[in-house]
């Protein structure tokens, strides 16, 4: 049996709990296929053709389909684009913010076949804050609800970590709480921010590294 995870993914909570309770055993049916809502974890029978194909990774099937709106909006200077599972269906989607005139967060929801459904709803404040020089946009599941959210840090005047929590339909709820230390450290040139579940609680956190004088790795652990 083969478990396929992308870099940085973790075994989702429901499946891990099943493992702890002994409900997932080696005697699982060879037809078993588990698709985790958060990270798209797939369990493949080791003798299946899919497993053999996975072992020969490094090849790609290419699509290039027309998508309404999103590619045109993305041309505007300042937009940062990230991928995440913004509606919790196990497929990667795209979101962007940061353009100078933007008051929305465009999202392209994957249909799983190279096509996308696009939303472009107004979001309070976050797109305006994202215009500030230095902000780095990241996607992660910061509240552990199985849907990817957005956060950013690194702007020169920031003392908060803005975050928007996905409602699963292209709309977002906004927070902007003061955080001790981290936003100030993140201003230093060279720092790069990434999201990951660094404490294993199924909520994404933030980490930064890369500044010239740094000898530490600052973390911002989500308390959501």
TrEMBL record:
Domain of life: Bacteria
InterPro entries reported in the protein's UniProt record: FG-GAP, Integrin_alpha_N
Keyword Signal: yes
Pfam families found in the cross-reference section: FG-GAP_3 (PF13517)
Gene3D superfamilies: Integrin alpha, N-terminal
Keyword Cytoplasm: no
Keywords assigned by UniProt, alphabetized: Signal
Name recorded for this polypeptide: VCBS repeat-containing protein
Taxonomic lineage of the native organism: Bacteria, Bacillati, Actinomycetota, Actinomycetes, Kineosporiales
């Amino acid at each position: 049996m083969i478990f396929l995870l992308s870099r940085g993914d973790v075994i989702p909570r429901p499946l891990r709990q099943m493992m702890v309770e002994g409900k997932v055993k080696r005697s699982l049916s060879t037809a078993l296929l588990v698709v985790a809502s958060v990270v798209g974890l797939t369990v493949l029978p080791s003798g299946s053709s899919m497993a053999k194909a996975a072992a020969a990774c490094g090849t790609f099937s290419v699509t290039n389909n027309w998508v309404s709106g999103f590619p045109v909006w993305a041309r505007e200077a300042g937009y940062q684009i990230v991928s995440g599972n913004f509606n919790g269906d196990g497929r990667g989607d795209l979101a962007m913010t940061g353009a100078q005139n933007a008051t929305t967060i465009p999202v392209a929801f994957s249909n799983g076949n190279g096509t996308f459904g696009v939303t472009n709803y107004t979001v309070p404040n976050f797109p305006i804050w994202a215009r500030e020089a230095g902000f780095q946009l990241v996607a992660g599941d910061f509240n552990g609800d199985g849907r990817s959210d957005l956060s950013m840090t690194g702007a020169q005047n920031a003392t908060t970590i803005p975050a928007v929590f996905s409602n699963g339909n292209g709309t977002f709820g906004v927070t902007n709480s003061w955080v001790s230390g981290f936003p100030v450290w993140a201003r230093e040139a060279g720092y790069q921010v990434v999201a990951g579940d660094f404490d294993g609680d199924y909520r994404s956190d933030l980490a930064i590294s890369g500044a010239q004088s740094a000898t530490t790795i600052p973390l911002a652990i989500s308390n959501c």
